[in-house]
Amino acid sequence: MPQAQDKPRFLASRCNMKRLLIFLPIAIALELFLWNLPRELSHHDSNLVRGIVLFGGIFIFIPTFIALSLSGLKSKTLMALAILSIPINGIGAGTRIQRQEVKELLKRGVWTTAIVTQTQSDHRKTVSYDWAVKAKYVVEGKTFNTNWEGDYTSSYQRGDTIQLIYLPDFPKIYRIKDGRNEYKSN
Questions:
Q1: Which of 48, 123, 166, 167 is the most buried (most CB within 10 A)?
Q2: Contact present, 43 and 170 (Cβ < 8 Å)
Q3: How far apart, in whole angstroms, are the C-alpha atoms of residue 124 and residue 113?
Q4: Residue 55, Cβ neighbours under 10 Å: how many?
């Protein structure tokens, strides 16, 4: 039967409590920040800023702080927990942010016409379309450009117009009406 004095030694051998109390709250705070990422960061103009926040948070910072907080565990267990945090935070946070944006667009979105500026063939096996388009749209005199978006009908040419819904208070958040989604144009 273990004695009361054995318990602290048992915990200390499993996990360094001081490290746990310091680094685990930091890892949790980083996860909460990532899952509630301000749109000014997720849609920042600078690829460097977006890369540091998203890539760094998902692949470097959170796994590192998890590993530091649980450093007393067996190395295989520690590595598994740190690696497991990557898809959980990457897929989970990304899905949550996308769903939140769609909710906001459906509630407050404004429809406009965008002009196709580029088209390209996209024959990757991981996508369900053969062509991709980039477009530009104007909100209050300022021009915004879309990312590459799937052309599911393979019908758009440069100069064509497409319907696009955006948030009036943050026009960088948009979705193109492509016939597959649930957006209703007025």
A1: 166
A2: yes
A3: 28
A4: 12
Tokens 């393979």 sit on residue: 154
Distances (CA, A) of 167 to 81, 84, 102, 111: 38, 34, 10, 9
Q: Provide the β-strand partners of residue 131.
A: 121, 151
| pLDDT tens-digit readout, 76-102 | 887 888 888 899 988 999 899 989 999
Query: Taking a C-beta distance cutoff of 8 angstroms, is the pair 13, 72 a contact?
Result: yes
Element containing residue 88 per DSSP (H, E): helix 75-108
Residue 75 near residue 136 (C-beta atoms within 8 A):
no
Q: What radius of gyration do the chain's Cα atoms show?
A: 23
Q: What is the pTM of this model?
A: 0.72
